[in-house]
Design goal:
single chain, 115 residues, alpha+beta, name from scop, four-stranded mixed sheet
Length: 115
C-alpha cells in the first residue's frame, strides 16, 4: 500500500512547523492582540497559565469577573507570566490555584443558552 510514501518526504519540499501540539508555531502578535482586546473590553480579568501537555503547548486563560473566558497558546510558562504582566492583570499558575468556579458556571450557562 505504500504506507510510508504518504509521509511527504519529497526532495526539495518545504516542511512547515506543526499547526498543533506542543511544538506548534504561535503568532505572538495575534495572541497579544486578542488577549489585550479581551482585557480592555471586560472587567476584573485574571490570567491563569496552563502547562503544556503532550498535545497542547503552554496556554493562558483569561477569565473575567462574570466567568467569561478565552484561551490562547503562549509557548512557555515564562511567556504566559510575562504576557499577563504586560497586560496588567493578576496572574496565577493553574496547577497551584485551580480554576475559579465562575468560569465553570459561565460555561454551563453558555451550554444551556443563558450566557
Amino acid at each position: 500500500m505504500g504506507w510510508f510514501s504518504r509521509r511527504g518526504s519529497h526532495k526539495g519540499a518545504v516542511r512547515l512547523g506543526r499547526s498543533d501540539g506542543p511544538k506548534m508555531e504561535i503568532d505572538r502578535k495575534a495572541v497579544e492582540q486578542h488577549l489585550r482586546s479581551f482585557v480592555e473590553s471586560r472587567l476584573g480579568v485574571e490570567a491563569y497559565v496552563e502547562p503544556a501537555t503532550s498535545v497542547t503547548p503552554t496556554t493562558i486563560v483569561l477569565i473575567a469577573w462574570d466567568g467569561e473566558w478565552t484561551r490562547r497558546a503562549v509557548g512557555s510558562p515564562k511567556d504566559g507570566f510575562e504576557m499577563s504582566q504586560k497586560l496588567g492583570v493578576p496572574v496565577y499558575d493553574v496547577n497551584q490555584t485551580g480554576y475559579p468556579n465562575r468560569m465553570r458556571e459561565w460555561s454551563k450557562r453558555r451550554r444551556q443558552g443563558d450566557a
